[in-house]
């Protein structure tokens, strides 16, 4: 990659982080200025951050719990994944999703939605196998037990979602999509 492309990508990452910060502030989440530096941007190695990926602001993470803000651009899709058991006997991450701003469509196992409101990218759709729809709006929440397949997509205004969970084990998340890469150049560890 030439230096112009690296510079352009670096500038775009900074733009996305600024947009993410501004949306979280507008959503009414009280933040400390140093937390802006904690924003992670990921495209899961799929090369189109605005369409497939996630912005993550980790507010707390220790061996017992994690509190994160998951921020999605308008229409941004995060692929189907689950938090499997760990080799140490840990049953996997339990995750509470709670809407803070905008609308996000969360899909989990259960009866399929007749007319789903989300529209994953066509090339990713075969890897979306759960279609029970939960609409996350401010104050609406859903708990995902360990090892439960789930995926989500933002509505047309983007979304800010709280993710409060038991110990985060995102490094061992399993994705349905074989094209997903856990880490890619210019991004950070994935979550969600």
Structural topology:
Blueprint: H1 3-26, E1 39-42, E2 54-61, E3 65-72, E4 77-82, E5 95-108, E6 132-136, E7 141-144, E8 150-166, E9 174-175
Antiparallel strand pairs: 1-2, 2-3, 3-8, 4-8, 4-9, 5-6, 5-7, 5-8
In CATH terms, what is the fold-level topology? Jelly Rolls
| Proportion of residues in β-strands | 35-45%
Mean pLDDT: 91
Question: What order do the SSEs take from the amino end to the carboxyl end, as H and E?
Answer: HEEEEEEEEE
Superfamily (CATH H level) name: Jelly Rolls
Largest sheet: 9 strands, antiparallel
**Which structural class do the helices and strands define?**
mainly beta
- End-to-end Cα distance, whole Å, is 29 Å
Our count of domains comes out at 1
Helix percent reads 10-25%
Name of the top-level CATH class: Mainly Beta
pLDDT < 50 runs, ≥5 residues: 1-7, 184-191
- Rg over CA atoms, rounded to whole Å, is 16 Å
Number of strands: 9
Overall geometry: globular
Indicate the CATH architecture.
Answer: Sandwich
Count the helices. How many? 1
Descriptive key words:
192 residues; mainly beta; Jelly Rolls; 9-stranded antiparallel sheet; disordered N terminus
